[in-house]
Specification:
It is an enzyme of class 3 (hydrolase). Belongs to the PTH family. The protein is globular and about 45 Å long. It contains seven helices and seven strands, in the order αβαβββαββαβααα. With about 200 residues, it is α/β, with parallel strands linked by helices. It has one domain: Peptidyl-tRNA hydrolase (Rossmann fold). The chain starts with a helix and ends with a helix. A seven-stranded mixed β-sheet has the order 2-3-4-1-5-7-6.
């Protein structure tokens, strides 16, 4: 019986950097989406006993429905060390890599666009690279939230560690909301249906 319960738990990780100075950066879209999901679950983040992440545990979906059990997580480390805390949480909650979801910024997708997929490389993304290394596989789900490429000759590192433009900030709540919808769809309805709805 326990196997059934453990395999029905999803670990949803928002990738980002901790602390107020990073909060509004493009690289922190994963944190923003997990904030929205926590609010939908009616709960705030609290320290996990590992001391390496903040978590929210509960069910994600309409109240009273057979909503999936979800652990939302925000690692307490910088992006390039994300894998250790994710591995620790996956082990603690007995979540297989295929039921881990990473929400992250994606340079190769235009702003206000997103893609959901299972597996793949890390495309130079240090958070994904760290997760792949610690989990021993890249076969986890990704909700890839587009930020587009930097304008002109701006350095990529500077671009991802900068705030959204004024025009983007107007659309950002919609982007965050849509990405949260995609996570809900993924854990409730599976990858194929979610891709049909959100990979437009």
């Amino acid at each position: 019986m326990t196997d059934d319960t453990t395999s029905s738990t999803w670990l949803v990780v928002g990738l980002g950097n901790p602390g107020p100075s990073y909060a509004g950066h493009r690289h922190n879209i994963g944190y923003m989406v997990t904030d929205e999901l926590a609010s939908r679950m009616g709960s705030g983040f609290r320290a996990h006993k590992s001391g390496r992440a903040d978590v929210v545990e509960g069910r994600l979906g309409a109240p009273g429905s057979d909503a999936p059990r979800v652990v939302l997580a925000r690692p307490r480390c910088y992006m390039n060390d994300t894998g250790g805390p994710v591995k620790a949480l996956a082990t603690f909650y007995k979540v297989p890599p295929a039921q881990v979801v990473a929400i992250h910024d994606e340079l190769d997708i235009d702003f206000d666009t997103m893609r959901v997929k299972l597996g793949g490389g890390d495309n130079g993304h240090n958070g994904l690279k760290s997760m792949r290394s610690s989990l021993g596989t890249g076969d986890f789900h990704r909700v890839r939230v587009g930020i587009g490429r930097p304008p002109g000759r701006q350095d990529v590192a500077d671009f991802v560690l900068s705030n959204y433009s004024t025009a983007e900030k107007k659309l950002l709540p919609f982007v965050v909301d849509t990405a949260a919808d995609a996570v809900e769809s993924l854990v409730a309805d599976g990858l194929e249906k979610t891709q049909q709805r959100f990979n437009s």
